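User: Please run a holo structure prediction.
Assistant: Happy to. Please share the sequence and the ligand.
User: Here you go; the ligand is iron/sulfur cluster.
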Amino acid sequence: MKEACGVVGVVAPGRDVAHGCYDGLYALQHRGQESAGMAASDGRQITVVKDNGLVSHVFTENTLQALKGSLAIGHTRYSTSGSANWTAAQPAFRSAGPAGFALAHNGNLTNTHELADAAGLDSRSLLSDSDLLAELIGRVVEAGATLPEALHDVLRRAEGAFSLVVAEADAIYAVRDPYGFRPLCLGRLGPAEAPAGWVVASETPALDVMGATFVREVAPGEMVTLRAAGADSTRLLEPAAGPQRLCIFEFVYFARPDAYLLDHQVHSTRRRMGSLLAATAPVAADLVIGVPDSGIPAAEGYAQASGTPFGQGLVKNRYIGRTFITPDQDQRAAGVRRKLNPLRDTIAGQRLVVVDDSVVRGTTTRALVRMLRDAGAREVHLRISSPPFGWPCHYGIDTPTRDELLATRFDLAGMCAFVGADSLAFLSLEDLRRAVGVAEGCCDACLTGNYPAPVPVTVGASRGRW
Ligand code: SF4
C-alpha cells in the first residue's frame, strides 16, 4: 500500500513563511515521495513552485527565497488518481479571482466522472481529481462567487475523501470531508493570548517541527479560515451521520509514530497492537523482530507481552528514491533487497517472530521470508498487526483490485503456504479497534467491505460496491 498525500498551510503576519512551510512538508515526506510543491502569497500575488521528487530535491535556498509572503500552502504527493507527471504535482493553481487560488488535496473523490460529466468536462483530460476540484471551483469563482462560496458549491457535490488546503492572496481555507477520512489538524504559533500565526497540517509532527502548538483536529465537514487577523471556523458541509471515519490504517501504517490522532499517539497504539497479537497468537520463539518502520513498535509490544527477547533483525535503507528495475529482475524481491537487509549474526539459527503491519498481495512478504531464511533463520513465524486486507480502498490509498489481494485468494493455511512462513496470524478487527481506542470511530472498509461513503460501481470488475 502507498500513502496518499500530505498537506500543510501556514499564516504568520509579518514573516516570510516559506522556510517554515518547507519544514512542515519535510515532516510529511512519508505521505508522498513522487512530487512536492508550495504556493506562497505576499498578499497580492501567489507564487507556485512544484516538481517531481522529494521535498529536499524540489526546493533549494534560492527557490525558498523566491517564495515571498506570510501565507503559504504545501503538498507532498503520491498519485492515487490521475497522472504521475510533474504537471499533476500540487498545489494546483487557477487564475480565477483577484489573485487566483492554489489548492492542495489529500484523498480521493469517488464521483469524479459524475462531477466532470455534469460540468461538461472530459475526465480523461484531467490530471487528477484534485485538478477537477480546482477547475470546478475556478469556474464558480469566475461566475462571481467568493472562494468560500465556491468551495461550498463544489464540495457539497463531491463524494469521497478530501482534506484540502486552499489559498487565495490573503487567506487559507482548510476543509475536511464529512466523514473525516484523512487527517487534518490545526496548530497555533506563539502563545494563546497573542498568537503569532496559524498552521494546518495532515499530521501533528509537522506542527511540532514548525514550532506550532497543537490546538485540535479539524472536524469532519468543517472549514477553518486562517488570515492575518486570526483563525475562525465554519461548518461548510453537513457531517456524515454517526462517528467520524478516520482511516484506521493511519494508525497501523501511514501516520508517523510520533503523530497524535484522535488524542492517541500512533506509536502507543502500535505497541498495543503487538501486545494484543501476542495474547491471541503466541508461539515458542527465540527472538521477536519488526519489519521497519511501522512493524517495530508492534514487535516491541509483542515481545514485551510474550516475554520473548526483542531485537533488530532488519536494517532499512532510508535513502530509497526512484529505483530502476530491469525487465529480468523479480521486481518484488529486488524491491525488498533494496529496502531491507537482514542482520545475519542476529538471526542465524533463531526461531523468529517477525511482526509486520499488513499483507496486501503477499508477494513482498514472500520475498521477505525467503530473505530471512537465506540469512539463516531456523523458523519464521509471521505476525501481522492488522486483519487480512480483503477489499480495495477508494478513499485515497493505492491498493490493488480485490482479486489480487492475498486474503481473497487463500484461506489462512493457504496464505501461510504462499508466503512460506512456519506460521501466520493476524490481529483481529476487535483487537485492532481496541488498540486504537476508538471502537466505531474509524473507516475499516478495506478489512470489512463496509464502505461508509458511496464508491464507484464498475460492472464486471473487482472494483466497486460489494
Ligand atoms: S478503506 Fe482502508 S485504507 Fe481506505 S480509508 Fe478505509 S481504512 Fe483506510
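The pocket of iron/sulfur cluster is lined by residues 181, 247-249, 393, 395, 397, 443-446 (CB under 6 Å).
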